Amino acid sequence: MVDNYCSIVMYHYVRPLKGSRFSKLKALDLAAFERQLGYLSEHYNFVTPAEVMDSIDGIQSLPEKAVLLTFDDGYKDHFEYVYPALKSRGIKGIFFPPTGAIYENRLLDVNRLHFVLASVGSEILVKRLEDIIQSSSLGEQLKTIEEYRRLFWERGRYDSANVNYFKKMLQHALPEAFRSSVVKQLFAEYVDSDEMLFSKNLYMNPSQLIEMKEGGMEIGSHGHNHYWLEKLDMKQQVHDIECSLAFLRKDNLLSKKYWICYPYGSNNETTRLVLKDLGCGAAVTCEPLIAKCDRSNSLTMARLDTNDIPC
Questions:
Q1: What's the CA gap between 28 and 307, in Å, rounded?
Q2: Neighbouring residues of 239: CB distance < 8 A, sequence distance ≥ 6
């Protein structure tokens, strides 16, 4: 088997930011994305998801300085801005939509958090969150603020300690039903009271995914509910992944050797066993390294962040 390496690059929001309502959103400005494509075209060799899969299976080798572009979360940004930019340059990327957002028109907690943080200062939000926790009737189901801070108050790779703390608390640290209700409350207070309309404007619809697939792009799974999979038991992981695959297969969007992107990069041995049983071809993480493309680590493939690429 030939060892092959590929720079797999991860993108999320890509949009014009200047003068927009959410100019503070942690997004890649469209002009910067265009510059990145120019830089990558000059210094790297674009490869397709199918070519990377063939490399994983030992069928062919990749060119030197191979690069593959991936886009998470199914944003309408990807259809309106990314897809035309890739198509005009003959680049084939892979898009990972969470099917709960696309097929059920449901605003995900992860995106509620992003837009709340883009609308209000993090110090205000941390205080508001801790006030809600302290006034909650859940009592012994919750830890003290001191315990939560000890566990989760630390800098992230791209976030300050208070932003990282706020995110982790509302992504997985607090009990699911409670944290979901808190995120909805904060979103209604600081961003928008019409979640259905906001969701329609934020995410692609199935027809747009189909158009991109027919236009040469690859569509992969990003789970159904955008959960931290490693926080779930096996039954919950199977349900979330199978639900996603069923929606995508209904519209003929998955390749036979399909890709999965772990939300937040979160996975464990259970996740990988589930994916092997479900016939997954490759899965990508958020580990910021060059990916080694062979079958031995096909379910834990590393990805660089857009912030790692000059623009």
A1: 9
A2: none
Long-range contacts of 39-48, Cβ-Cβ distance < 8 Å, separation of 24 or more: 39/309, 39/310, 39/311, 40/9, 40/67, 40/69, 40/309, 41/89, 44/7, 46/91, 46/92, 47/6, 48/92, 48/218
- When computed from its CA atoms, the radius of gyration of the chain, rounded to whole angstroms, is 19
d(C-alpha 96, C-alpha 209), whole Å: 10
> Using alpha carbons only, what angle is made at residue 206 by residues 200 and 209, rounded to the nearest 5 degrees?
110
Per-residue tokens: 199 = 């969701």
Looking at the DSSP assignment, which residues form a beta bridge with residue 29? 15
pTM of the model: 0.94
pLDDT tens digits, one per residue of 141-156: 999 999 999 999 999 9
The per-residue pLDDT for 310 is 86
What DSSP state is assigned to residue 9? E
Q: Is the backbone of residue 7 left (phi > 0), alpha (psi -120 to 50) or beta?
A: beta
Burial category of 70 from C-beta neighbours within 10 Å (exposed 0-12, middle 13-18, buried 19 and up):
buried
Residues near 103 by beta carbon (within 8 Å), at least 6 away in sequence: 206, 247
Residue that the structure tokens 């961003």 belong to: 191
Contact 172, 159 (CB under 8 A): no
Distance (Å, rounded) from C-alpha 30 to C-alpha 19?
A: 13
The Cα 61–Cα 293 span in angstroms is: 9
The pair of structure tokens assigned to 255 is: 């390749």
